[in-house]
Amino acid sequence: MTKFNRLKAFGRNTSVVALLLASGLALGTTAPAAALEATTSAAEAPAQAPRGPLVTAANPLAAEAGMRVLREGGSAVDAIVAIQAVLSLVEPQSSGLGGGAFLMTYDAKTGEVAQYDGREMAPSAATPEMFYENGRPLPFIDGVLSGRSTGAPGVVAMMGMAHEEQGKLAWNRLFVEAETLARDGFIVSPRLAGYINSGRNQAVTEWATRYFTKPDGTRYQAGERLVNAEYAETVRHLANEGPSVFYQGELPQKIVEAVQSNPRPGLLTVEDIANYRPLRRDPICRPYRAYVVCVPTLPSSGVAILQFLAMAEKTPDILKGKDSPEAWVAFGRLQRLMYADRDRYVGDGDFVGVPVAGLLDDDYVASRAALVPQINGPVGAGRPIGAATNLSDATLEPAGTTHFVAVDSEGNVASMTSTVESFFGSGRMAGGFFLNNQLTDFSYTPMENGHPAPNAVAGGKRPRSSMIPTLILDKDGKLVGAIGSPGGSSILAYVGKTLIGVLDWNLSMQDAIALPNLVVRGEMVGADTEQFSPEIRDALAAAGMELKPNATETSGLHGAIWRDGRWDGGADPRREGVVLVD
């Protein structure tokens, strides 16, 4: 954990430099100069400490489950468990008990920020060529639908660890809504119905077809009631017997049976599942203007969003506001730099050397930011201190993720991004939930010219992730905000847009979330094209960013910031989420 004392200032204050060093950064300089003259245009240092209850999540049923827990005196972590249990049922295209997650928490009494890593792990027998056949990589969708794509699920073990440390209510009180809705049925939402009836890949596997087909042979539609008796039984056992039921006994056998079924059986074993361990890591925190932004460390791409913010701080055009063509051009150019470095260097730090400190070194950041005015197309990765020679990345990250936030009555905060990777994961099911295809988040090209990919497959390794549940602290180390999103690799762009909107453009959280999305990664340019003015579209095109419809997973941003003595929350209008505040 990282502890933020009640500091009066930061920058030249050596205690803050030490604090940042303790969070996993080796900074060569003090905090950026902008931090020395902190302004509070977006979030004032709160006159009263932020308190809940607050919940924001991508489905009203899940949000209500979390709010019920908070009203009964539960902690933010308790609420997160309840929300995830319901989302696994009502939003299975995005996350579930068969997937993984990153969780960031803030302790209002101690100022501690903690990170919990529930990322899935590759089977012990996995090799870099796991997705090869006949000496060539499988077509991506064939890998997704294969049993090889499923790693040992981590979200349940991670939630168990967090609950043991930060929970208040009994574990068995956190699954009431999930069991009831599964047993009695829930109303299928329009978004879920769209995926059920898409006719695509995971939606038409034998498992999904059995689940989503009514007795008359037709598929469930929006507004109809869907019962999942098997999931009700799973969460009943999980509630009564604890997280270990997920990793020992009958349920792991069911998971392995599904994974090792045709086509292309996977390598996951009951031993791999039993050996899974969640990790508590030190998050990475860095000043940004008047704030400190905290994100997960490796294998999350949190370092990338911090590099983006550090470069943005050295890019004056970014401050020109939401209606400025120059600001949006700068935003796109900064993304190209961020993604080039992220794709080249970031992987599981327990297996490969990742130059985290080098990527955030002030001199390196300045050298990269200096390129912004001249970028009119894809850029190469830089060469930060500590960088090894790694090849260009060949990782694909399709849709299938969700984000949610909870704040309890004591001001403790939990921000969690959870995923099954693609929509409905691998399309395989066990225990009434979908199994992840997270191992396709590894690079399909493990070697090139003798140089290893940092995100190559290996036994026991966790694939790189773009999930970055983010916490925002003020200059005194008090939490003022939390934000996160689904979106595959585009998560970095979505969260970056919202942080700029809230912290630099002084927008409400809802307005910042609703800003049009712009994703610029190498040659790929995707956007909510029609939401940009002709002037902004023309400026982007002139800078080598001709707008095209976004082909990646749309955002599902959920977050809140404390302003004027109250929570200013936001839920992405592109999804079905809500903000609940008492």
Overview of the molecule:
It is a single chain. This protein has about 575 residues and is α+β, with helices and mostly antiparallel strands. The chain is about 30% helix and about 15% strand. It contains 18 helices and 24 strands. Strands 1, 2, 3, 4, 9, 12, 13 and 24 form an eight-stranded antiparallel sheet that branches. A six-stranded antiparallel sheet has the order 10-11-18-19-22-23. Strands 5-6 form a two-stranded antiparallel ribbon. Strand 18 (about 470-475) and strand 19 (about 480-485) form a beta hairpin. Helix 6 runs antiparallel to helix 9 (about 230-240) and helix 12 (about 300-310) packs antiparallel against helix 13 (about 325-345). The longest helix is centred in the middle third of the chain and has 21 residues, at about 325-345. The radius of gyration is 22 Å and the shape is globular.
In short:
The protein has 582 residues and is an alpha+beta fold. It contains 18 helices and 24 strands. Helix content is 31%, strand content 17%.
Write the layout of secondary structure elements.
Elements: E1 2-3, H1 14-22, E2 54-57, H2 60-71, H3 76-90, E3 100-106, E4 112-118, E5 132-133, E6 136-137, H4 140-145, H5 155-166, H6 176-184, E7 186-187, H7 190-196, H8 206-212, E8 225-226, H9 229-241, H10 250-259, H11 270-274, E9 279-281, E10 284-288, E11 291-295, H12 302-312, H13 325-345, H14 356-360, H15 362-369, E12 401-407, E13 413-419, E14 429-430, E15 433-434, E16 447-448, E17 451-452, E18 470-473, E19 479-484, H16 491-504, H17 509-514, E20 518-521, E21 524-527, H18 534-542, E22 558-563, E23 566-571, E24 578-581
Helix pairs in contact: 2-3, 3-5, 3-6, 6-9, 12-13, 12-15, 12-16, 13-18
